[in-house]
Write a structure and sequence with these properties.
single chain; 282 residues; mainly alpha; Hypothetical protein af1432; 14 helices; 70% helix; globular
Length: 282
């Protein structure tokens, strides 16, 4: 299907607004877990049974609970009840989100889209880990909310890659339309379909706007800083030279050199741990 980028983005967003989004079996179970987590009467036993129904989700929950970020003592848990208790419901949301996002990655059909999706997942893992550290050290936001926001911050891009095979040449053209309103149009629609919290939607609007408050204090500022500091750039930025790597002055004003070095060192360990727990890019 030949279409210009604006047409593609409008088609995708319109379909999402009408509920035209199909998830894999893994993602469907993950979304059922998310809905259960939204139930104030959710019981750990009930949650564990649903998670156990999907080996992939079960493995991710156990792996994350035993990662360096959540198990600094090195005492491994081997059953879901213990893993759920260690992570808490907020972190389970991040696991659920990672499964959904990675299933979108797996849905990329063209060779170009698959390469970009692998790189985008690597970028996502770095941003999520950095956001968790920055929330603790700089913006004083909830670290687990920041981690969740980092996991989903490129969900619109993953969705575009999963559908790129239907639109001839959409990834080979200049992507100005994507870095304008396009990313926000598709991103908003996917995030609404996933029922993400309003606080995350608000943070994403800050990210899309590219406006960093000084001093940085919000969840959106946390995402912007994490995105800026990520050593792995989004392939969408690299593809058309529209990198966000242009906040050097703001970054200097937001974080001093010593703290920046500490954040990068701390997040490096978490990136390795969290990437392994949530699944490698390949």
């Amino acid at each position: 299907m030949e279409a210009n980028q604006n047409s593609v983005l409008n088609i995708l967003a319109a379909g999402l607004d009408c509920g035209d989004i199909v998830f894999s079996t893994h993602a469907e179970i993950a979304l059922r877990v998310q809905r259960l987590l939204d139930d104030p009467d959710c019981a750990t036993e009930q949650l564990g049974k649903l998670i156990a129904a999907d080996p992939l989700l079960s493995a991710r929950v156990l792996a994350l609970s035993n990662s360096l970020a959540y198990n600094p003592s090195g005492r491994a848990v081997t059953e879901l009840r213990g893993a759920i208790a260690r992570l808490g419901f907020a972190n389970l949301r991040a696991v659920v989100a990672s499964v959904v996002v990675r299933q979108m990655k797996a849905g990329s059909q063209t060779p170009e889209a698959r390469v970009m999706a692998a790189r985008l997942w690597e970028h996502t893992a770095h941003v999520a880990a950095l956001a968790r550290v920055i929330a603790r050290r700089v913006t004083h936001q909830n670290p687990e909310a920041a981690f969740f926001a980092g996991i989903v911050h490129e969900v619109g891009s993953f969705y575009l890659l999963s559908r790129a095979g239907e639109f001839s040449g959409v990834l080979s053209r200049e992507l100005e339309a994507w870095h304008g309103e396009g990313e926000a149009i598709v991103g908003r629609a996917v995030l609404r379909a996933l029922d993400v919290p309003d606080s995350v939607l608000e943070a994403m609007e800050t990210l899309w706007s590219g406006y960093l408050a000084l001093p940085p204090v919000s969840l959106g500022d946390t995402l912007l800083l994490a995105d800026e500091l990520s050593p792995v750039e989004s392939p969408f930025d690299a593809l058309d030279g529209m990198s966000r790597k242009g906040m050097a002055v703001e970054l200097d004003m937001a974080i001093d050199d010593e703290m920046l070095s500490q954040i990068l060192a701390e997040s490096a360990e978490e990136v390795r741990s969290l990437t392994a727990a949530l699944g490698e890019a390949a």
